[in-house]
Amino acid sequence: MAAPLIQIHEVRKEYDDGPPALAGLTLEVRAGEALAVLGPSGSGKSTLLNLVAGLDRPSEGTVTVDGLRVDELSESASARYRRSRIGMIFQFFNLLDDLTVADNVLLPAQLAGASRQQARRRAADLLEFLGIDRFADTFPGRLSGGQRQRVAVARALMNRPALLLADEPTGALDTASGQDVGRLLTELNQDGQTILLVTHDTALADSCATRTIELIDGAIVRDVRAGGDVRAGRNVRAGSDIQAGSAVRSGGDVQAGAGR
Ligand SMILES: Nc1ncnc2c1ncn2[C@@H]1O[C@H](COP(=O)(O)OP(=O)(O)OP(=O)(O)O)[C@@H](O)[C@H]1O
Ligand SMILES: [Mg+2]
């Protein structure tokens, strides 16, 4: 069997003060999975995502994505890695407001030095696939949140990433637009896109994840595949009262829009 797309091995992440943000975390994610990472505010979700994106480095342990030791990359190699192998979407879309929708979507291809003609064709295909081709020449400021997130998804997919990373992609959206993003992520995953999704939104996780983990204090306390196969990770704490199936839905502070 092929190596997992993401291999996180005994990763600790410490900041200057306080307890570690990640406390010796081991996780493997296979190509084709849509993994949702749930957990209360401050449990280490964004820290995990940032390490996978190469935006930050672990204090200890290794992070391998698509065969690449992400934790060892130089700054320029790390930027190249993000351009070529991963796509990212965020709570607040992070679009460039003074570029049109089409130019926002084209940007990653331009940065990667792709042929202009091929990039234009791909951007047009993506905008059409996402149902936003009529906004190609519009500026993002004129779009609704849900439409902006679709533009962000198109941009993230532009360079055909092995991995799509999402940090609270519905955090700034109304319920209907959030469900729309959930359907879109499901569709992408069914087409084979591997997804790592950080969210407080348990409905979103339920709708599109093939597997869900829950973090508490930087450790995995639950690891469940859709369909019920509960895998107690080695970080699961003895005596924890967290049970498969219900805890994530009933537990913790389910709130949209918490900072990072
Ligand atoms: N740059 C940083 N400097 C210092 N501490 C940090 C930094 N980034 C994160 N932390 C700390 O690490 C811990 C985990 O933070 P993280 O942002 O990963 O949590 P989270 O699960 O994403 O929370 P939220 O749901 O609120 O977004 C928190 O205690 C946070 O204060
Ligand atoms: Mg976060």
TrEMBL record:
GO CC annotations on file: membrane protein complex; plasma membrane
PROSITE patterns linked: ABC_TRANSPORTER_1, ABC_TRANSPORTER_2
One annotated GO molecular function: ATP binding
ABC transporter domain segment(s): 6-242
InterPro entries per the UniProt record, alphabetical: AAA+_ATPase, ABC_transporter-like_ATP-bd, ABC_transporter-like_CS, ABC_transpr_LolD-like, MacB-like_ATP-bd, P-loop_NTPase
A Pfam short name: ABC_tran
Keywords associated with the record: ATP-binding, Nucleotide-binding, Transport
The protein's name: ABC transporter ATP-binding protein
Upper classification of the organism: Bacteria, Bacillati, Actinomycetota, Actinomycetes, Micromonosporales
